[in-house]
Amino acid sequence: MSATTLPGLRSREAAARPVGRRRRLGLGKPIRFGSAIGPVLLLAIWSIGSATGWIDQRVLSAPWTVVTTAGELIADGRLQSNLWTSAQRALIGLALGIVLGVVLALISGLSRLGEAVLDGPIQIKRAIPSLALLPLLILWLGIGESMKIVTILLGVFIPIYIHTHNGLRTIDSRYVELAQTVGLSQWEFIRRVVLPGALPGFLLGLRFAVTGAWLSLVVVEQINSTSGIGYMMELARTYGQTDIIIVGLVVYGALGLISDAVVRLIQRRALSWRRTLAS
């Protein structure tokens, strides 16, 4: 066999070899219980640090101390009572904020005049943190429940408005033309085109709104409250009880995670028709 035939044989050999499997692009397969990996790792670091003395117990109580304290708070009913009060405040503020945000988004998103009147002031409010308005709200409403619920409402309606309004304005114009062609009424147009088209934006805003409700609640419950998780934490700060403060933080964190998980579940079910990278 001559040397000139070797390159040809090698090329035919390479062509005959099976092509290796290409790496699949994308996020890969879902990791079972993947959302629990981060919290479990954090808990492990906290436990090891407490057991070895790296973490001072006066600065941060050990996990087992926090669990014991939580059991005592549950046994005497303090945790359940304060949790129920906090949940009521958050849910009322969240519900009112959702209604206000959706109504304003519909008015502004479906009318040039509505946008001219509403969008500017809402964008100004967006640039001002809700908690910066607390001194003014206290002067207007006092330090009772109204002030707390209005503060939560202000932290909720902005993300609902922003994302719902964006969802309305990004609806494909071909659907609007189709609705005009088939002669839909204004109400049918809103029900069949506007609301389904704005749903992805609304649900995204709802995730931010739920987080905003709990963040606002943390602050307002530490202002002259007589009940709630924040009040329990503020009282514990006065007496240097870090274990009770950690219990309150864990409760707030758990409420935030559960709320977000519920909204994400609704999002997956309601938008199951969409083909996205995550799906």
Automatic annotation (TrEMBL):
* SUPFAM superfamilies membership: MetI-like
Q: Which GO terms describe its biological process?
A: alkanesulfonate transmembrane transport
Keywords from the UniProt entry:
Cell membrane, Membrane, Transmembrane, Transmembrane helix, Transport
Residue ranges annotated for the ABC transmembrane type-1 domain, each copy included: 83-263
Return the Gene3D superfamilies for the record: MetI-like
Q: Which residues form a coiled coil?
A: none
- Where does the protein principally reside? membrane
Enumerate the transmembrane spans: 31-55, 90-114, 126-143, 149-168, 189-210, 244-266
Known CDD domains for this protein? TM_PBP2
Spell out the subcellular localization from the entry.
Cell membrane
- What start and end residues bound the annotated signal peptide? none
Question: For this UniProt entry, what's an example GO CC term?
Answer: plasma membrane
Note the topology in the membrane: Multi-pass membrane protein
Family, per entry: Belongs to the binding-protein-dependent transport system permease family.
Name this polypeptide is given: Sulfonate transport system permease protein
Species name for this entry? Answer: Kribbella pratensis
